[in-house]
Amino acid sequence: MIIQASCIRLMSVGLFLGLLVMAGCAVPHVPSRVIYEDPVNFVRLEEDSEVLAEWPPTHHAHPFVIEPEKLRKILSGLMVQEHWIALKRWLRGESPLVPAFTDQELTLLSVQLAEALAEARYNERVTFYLSEPQTFARRIITTGGLYIHGTKLHMLLGNWRIIYGIPAYGMIYDRRYPMRPTAAKGFDLRFQPLEAVVPTKSSVLDEILANAKDELVIDLSKLESIESSLSLLDSCRWGEISCERSLTIH
User: Can you give the residue ranges of every domain in the chain?
Assistant: First the structure.
């Protein structure tokens, strides 16, 4: 009886330790609200852990209303530039800028992201997940997120046309964390027009520890000013207004 009781105690301790290990290895849950979802794509709102309720300067400018067509125009300006090794850059120059999204992706994102921004709370950011199934266990993914802070749009692309292999067991991370890369990032996110991009600064320590924010920041107020100037110049070219007036205004 004593031996049996000891065995039971050991089994109980083993089970308890096993549960502790599982809890320690468990992936933390990210509170979210689904805005759009189909079998291969989704757009959702996630709580931003860096926003503090008691500190208004950290609050995002949400809800934020923007027309889908205007958002599509902004998304069309996002470009991806792949990292090339030094030898390849020496032979071929800098890698070309490639549109971050296809026309089909722009059609989906412009509508669903605009809806998400209109429903977002001050402590939420919008995330998206786009995938193209290749086989049962492989898919090409493009994922990321954005939020509006003041007059600035913060955009992050976690994965861009990455081939993701679904693991035979364990957590499927690409869908759970769309803003995190599933592999080493081999690209930089750019924007055109460049004048609307806000330069970001990181300390040397952040760069060493890889803590620098991997975000592209676009000043929406500057973008509107640039678009207004271009519109006036176009009108000038087509004779709708005099070039002298156009140049005087700007």
Answer: 28-219
